[in-house]
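(Deposited chain)
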Amino acid sequence: MPNETRSATRREEVLRHMNSIPDRLSDAMVARMEHDRAQGWVNPFRTDDGAARRREERPQDEASIWRPAFVRDVEKILHTPAYNRYTGKTQVFSFRSNDDLSRRGLHVQLVSRIARDIGYALGLNCDLIEAIGLGHDLGHTPFGHAGERYLNDVFHERTGRWFFHNVHSVRVLDRLYGRNLCLQTLDGVLCHNGEYEQRVFELSGLAGFDEFDRIVASCVETGERAIGHLRPMTLEGCVVRISDIIAYVGRDRQDAIAAGLISDDDFDDGLGGRYNSWILSHATVDIIEHSYGKDRIEMSPELFCEIARAKAENYAKIYRTSGIEGERAEILAHAFELVYDRCLADLQAGDESSYIFRHHIARIDEALSHYGKRYDWESDLDQTVVDYIASMTDGYFAEFATKLFPEIRFPQRTYINDR
């Protein structure tokens, strides 16, 4: 069979399957939701504000009638220095001269927005959803998942421990900046990882901070064995987790096309950038239809298969062949090794004139001083280096690396081309 015929047949199969997934709620579901709202129905499985649990009981963190617990968490996240750095961090494409390509700051807003839409329909706590959505990537490295991989490689080689951005997001909020967020928010951040899709998301039954701390430690110590088994303790966390996938699977296609790396016709479904609109409408409807009134979040087998297919196609045609690959990957991986070793050497030498002392340790110490705490950087120098590198934006990392190691040459970005 010629390639063109096989492609056409494959496209027909994919579209036939996609067309089996509705983009509107059934009349029965709409009638049920309208009746429930008229009766003042409250989802018995939602997370109530009164259930919020903090690590420390501090008067300034007490909820009020106009600033409930999870609203406070949203505000704490927004005022974290790491939140401001979202704008300078890559989503997928790092060395592209196009300001319309998504950055991580837009991604977390999309996740929050999608999750709030689903959560509102299901009668969940949308303030908790927003807190998890906006905070879930605060621990991400510069240069997206490529940077995460390179930082993990050098960290693991030196210490035997593992770096994951979701675990580090918890560290940023809970330890580095001492924000004293609610357990439910931190748990949602830890368990958000959209790389691990499931058709049914059931709750973990997490009871308290002691158990949570053991889970975080296990992720660092055992890596994928622990990460792959994470489940949120709340339905709100489950909604954010699936919304993470919905937010990037279509948007990353739009960015790849805008970057000139692939065309609409290169995808099996033939939708190209329009797939983003398709997944937003169809997935949202499907999840609401299959989760309303339940103690779990689930999707239909048809949607689950489609998301798995779309993700696999993105990996094959975008993530493994675009972004940071080839020579750039080698340059960046080498840069991470050099930066890591230099920062570690500065700590070991106690060189307080170095950037890691002036730009990182001093600033974290200042932030923690407001809560009567200090940054215990001396007890684990490798972790301190990881804290610093993960906090960097793409531009800061590139400038830092080239300033200290002139032999490193990052691709130059040209925004205006007169040709």
